[in-house]
């Protein structure tokens, strides 16, 4: 990419981040309805998640690039790949379950108007800060 085109994309992205941050700061609080949640069958949730994960090309690229580094040439590669893949899925299931449980615990506190206001201001400030940082950051390729 030419330096001029890079600069255009960089400043456009920085300006967009500042715009998003300003919109967050200016927005009025959104009321959260306490309606009855829609029940989705667990079978469907599992199926949809499995299909999305299976068809995600980033997952394939990750496993193809990362896992072979840990394979021993003295053992069957299929068994090693399956074992490492299973270990990855087990670790991901534990961490993702922990995140979900933690989110369920803090959700009532985050529904309060004060928490939403603080979150909106914090998020807007972060977007503006990232936009300014992006605009002021130098190019890695520039010497």
Explained architecture:
The chain is mainly α. It has one domain (3-30, 39-136). Helices cover 74% and strands 0% of the residues. It is built from 5 helices and no strands. Helix 1 (3-26) runs antiparallel to helix 5. The radius of gyration is 22 Å and the shape is flat. The model has no long low-confidence stretch (mean pLDDT 87).
- Class per helix and strand makeup: mainly alpha
Q: What is the distance, rounded to the nearest whole angstrom, between the alpha carbons of the first and last residues?
A: 16 Å
H/E element string? Answer: HHHHH
Identify low-pLDDT runs: none
Query: How many structural domains does the protein architecture include?
Result: 1
**Helix-residue proportion:** over 70%
- Using only C-alpha atoms, the radius of gyration works out to 22 Å
How large is the count of helical segments? 5
Tally of strands? 0
Return the average pLDDT rounded to an integer: 87
The fraction of residues in strands falls at: under 5%
Largest sheet: none
Dominant shape? flat
Name some characteristics of this structure:
143 residues; mainly alpha; 5 helices
């Amino acid at each position: 990419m030419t330096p001029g085109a890079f600069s255009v994309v960089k400043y456009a992205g920085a300006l967009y981040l500042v715009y998003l941050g300003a919109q967050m700061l200016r927005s009025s609080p959104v009321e959260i309805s306490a309606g009855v949640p829609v029940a989705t069958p667990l079978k469907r949730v599992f199926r949809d998640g499995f299909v999305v994960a299976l068809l995600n090309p980033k997952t394939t690229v990750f496993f193809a690039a990362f896992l072979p580094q840990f394979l021993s040439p003295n053992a069957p590669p299929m068994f090693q790949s399956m074992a490492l893949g299973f270990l990855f899925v087990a670790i991901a299931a534990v961490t993702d379950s922990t995140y979900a449980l933690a989110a369920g615990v803090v959700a009532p506190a985050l529904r309060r108007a004060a928490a939403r206001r603080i979150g909106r201001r914090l998020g807007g400030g972060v977007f503006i800060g990232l936009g300014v940082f992006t605009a002021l950051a130098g190019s890695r390729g520039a010497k």
